[in-house]
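Long-time lurker, first post. I've been practising inverse folding by hand and with some scripts of my own, and I keep getting stuck on stretches where the structure tokens seem ambiguous. Below is the full token string for one chain I'm working on. Before anyone asks, I'm not after the true native sequence, just a reasonable design that respects the backbone. If someone could post their per-position residues I'd love to compare against what I wrote down in my notebook.
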């Protein structure tokens, strides 16, 4: 059951273009899409609609008492682009998936329902990020919280796991790709366990920073580098499938040693939460994604009008509140329940209003523009905004008065 009021439910025929931004004001964001995908990764101060790193997938695994194991990608079926000379070209296109039934929304909350009767688990993927009126800094946190619910629909106990497959994309925003010298290390913050991404060199670039990806579970296994990496002929996909089917997680290539900086490309990693499910039991696994990218390049994002060759970099306001992504997690995790409750109170107040449902939906859902790259804050706290965003940069004159003076939501 949901603890937040659903203002709008989208059925299967209306899921294709849904992408709900998850992040803070002026921090960048990623999106929860209508089919369960995590897409539109735009954390580095520049738009890039639809961009996904190679791996950013949830995988559910379960094993019955007789030893029979199955896995599913927690995303809707791939229905287009399947024909090619050497098999489905989509990332993980050969692995079985769920079917997205509906998307429930009351921004900044969203939830995807995923079904597949033969899998014996019903799953939902929910996302939210804090949005609390009159609490600007709490609404400007560089975090997203994902909650995956997995229900055992059988009459017998199951071993199960939730794995997040993740490409370390520090240095890449979909436009710029500088993946050399990336590091992935095991990380634990106030009881949440996962990984920390960084670079082994320090440069003043919008694409350089840190990320922390953490589960709230007791039994978490982290694989910083896969032993089967870079295998040809779909070798990585086969490695993922074989390892997960065997034991529900992927082993680390060198668990006793440090992760070396990536030579040219980057590392692919995974986090797995291991647990058991009694008949009819539902398990909820929370994941925090935190990021810290201190700089933005005003020329890259379409704002800069200074002399050619001059420094177009600026600092981000949010980044001045934290040392790195691990510090973001350290400050936010103890407040997750509080921040969710305050955001929920705001959404409930809107939902209970006597206004027509269509007006409440428009008023609440259009606040998503605050989480987009249309709006940002410079290091000194200055709030700035484009008229909107194109696919790769801000659009039209910044802070345009004939747009912003009659805009009502803010």
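-- Answer (accepted) --
I ran through it position by position. Result:
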């Amino acid at each position: 059951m949901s603890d937040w009021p659903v203002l709008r439910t989208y059925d299967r025929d209306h899921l294709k273009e849904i992408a709900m931004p998850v992040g803070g004001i002026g921090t960048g964001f990623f999106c929860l899409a209508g089919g369960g995908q995590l897409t539109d990764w735009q954390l580095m101060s520049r738009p890039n609609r639809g961009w996904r790193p190679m791996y950013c997938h949830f995988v559910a695994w379960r094993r019955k008492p007789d030893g029979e194991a199955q896995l599913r990608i927690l995303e809707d079926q791939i229905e287009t682009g399947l024909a090619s000379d050497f098999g489905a070209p989509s990332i993980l296109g050969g692995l079985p998936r769920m079917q997205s039934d509906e998307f429930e929304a009351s921004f900044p909350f969203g939830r995807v329902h995923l079904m597949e009767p033969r899998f014996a688990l019903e799953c939902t993927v929910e996302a939210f990020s804090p949005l609390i009126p009159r609490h600007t800094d709490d609404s400007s946190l560089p975090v997203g919280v994902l909650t995956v619910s997995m229900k055992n629909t059988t009459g017998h106990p199951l071993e199960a796991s939730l794995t997040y497959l993740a490409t370390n994309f520090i240095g890449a925003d979909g436009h710029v790709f500088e993946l050399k010298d990336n590091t992935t290390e095991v990380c634990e913050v106030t009881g949440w366990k996962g990984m920390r991404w960084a670079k082994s060199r320090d440069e003043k670039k919008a694409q350089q920073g840190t990320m922390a990806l953490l589960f709230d579970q007791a039994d978490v296994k982290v694989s910083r580098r896969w032993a089967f990496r870079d295998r040809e002929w779909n070798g990585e996909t086969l490695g993922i499938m074989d390892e997960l089917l065997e034991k529900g997680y992927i082993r680390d290539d060198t668990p006793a040693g440090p992760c070396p900086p990536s030579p040219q490309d980057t590392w692919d990693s995974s986090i797995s939460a291991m647990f058991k499910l009694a008949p009819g039991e539902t398990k909820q696994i929370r994941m925090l994604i935190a990021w810290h990218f201190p700089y933005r390049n005003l020329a890259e994002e379409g704002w800069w009008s200074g002399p050619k060759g001059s420094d177009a970099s600026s600092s981000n306001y949010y980044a001045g509140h934290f040392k790195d992504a691990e510090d973001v997690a350290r400050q936010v995790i103890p407040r997750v329940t509080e921040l969710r409750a305050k955001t929920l109170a705001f959404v409930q107040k809107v939902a209970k209003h006597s206004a027509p449902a269509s007006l409440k939906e428009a008023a609440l859902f259009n606040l998503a523009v605050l989480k987009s790259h249309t709006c940002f804050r410079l290091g000194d706290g200055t709030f700035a905004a484009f008229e909107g965003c194109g696919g790769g940069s801000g659009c039209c004159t910044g802070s345009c008065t004939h747009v912003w003076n009659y805009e009502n939501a803010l």
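A couple of notes from the structure itself: The mean pLDDT is 93. The two ends are 31 Å apart (CA to CA). Happy to go over any region you disagree with.
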